Structure formats: structure tokens, C-alpha cells
Amino acid sequence: MRTPTQNTGTDWSGRLDGWVRRGFPATAWRRAAEVDAGVIGVLRRVAVPLLRVSLGLVFVWFGLLKVFEVSPVSELVASTVYWFDASWVVPALGVVEVFVGTCLLLGRLMRLTLLLFALQMVGTFLVLVVQPDIAFQRGNLLLLSVEGEFVVKNLVLLSAGMVVGSSVTPLRQRAP
Q: Do 101 and 114 meet the contact criterion of CB atoms below 8 Å apart?
């Protein structure tokens, strides 16, 4: 009768144990662990700044499209916030987006920037409420239209902004 610790030849963990005891895989494993730790170290140093810069570029780019009135979403924005005059609300939103993007790129005024960022991101979800006929196909909340997908993907941008916000130095740790 076989016990759980016996190797029958088909137990891969037993074979791996034997290889590790002979030294080759242990060396390879250590090297892989070193590379893994190095990659994780680099990611910890650069991921949040790259995310901040990426968000900044997207906000400046999309904002400039609105300022120069060449944004493909201008009509969607104007018809969603129909209580404002479209001739100024879309360019004004563009100016705010350029400001947010510039601050993200420079890493300055982060509390104000992230507040405006969050308000703008949450505001995009108005499309789902104000214009469900445009956001969803045949009234089905699970069938997003192109516009609906455009809006819902902002959950990722909002989450990215939260990650950037998590890297801001708390006020109590800052020197007066």
C-alpha cells in the first residue's frame, strides 16, 4: 500500500524534489527569484509615476480635442449635460481636462487635481443615466453600445486615479 509521501513515478512534485536536491533547478529557481524580485522592484518604483504620466497625457490630449472643438464626443457631452450651453460647456470641460492632465504630468497640486479628475470621471457616467437609449442596446443594461463602452471603461481610469492618489504623501507626514 502506498503512503502519501511515496513517489510512484507519476507524482511530479516528487520528481521536482529530486531535481532540486541535485542542485540544477535550485540554482535556476534562485536565479528566477532574483529576476522576479528585480522586476517587481522596478515596477514598484516606476509603475505609479508611469500611470500618473499616462493619465496626464490622455487628459491633455482629450481636453485639447474639446478645446479646439474636434472631439468625437462633443455631441455626446453636450446632449448629456443639455441644461448647459454646448457652445461653452464642451470647451470649458476641455480646459479643465487640460489643467488636470498638466498637473498629473507635472505631479503638482495633486489633491486638487485628483478631486477634479474624480469629478470629471464620475460625471462621464451621467450618460448612462441621462441617455440610457444611447448607452445601452435595446434597453438592456448588459448590452452596451459603443458610447456605453466608452463610458464604462472610465471605471479603469477612475481606478488608475485612485492608485495615483494612493501615492500622495499624507498631510500629516509633510513638513510645515
A: no
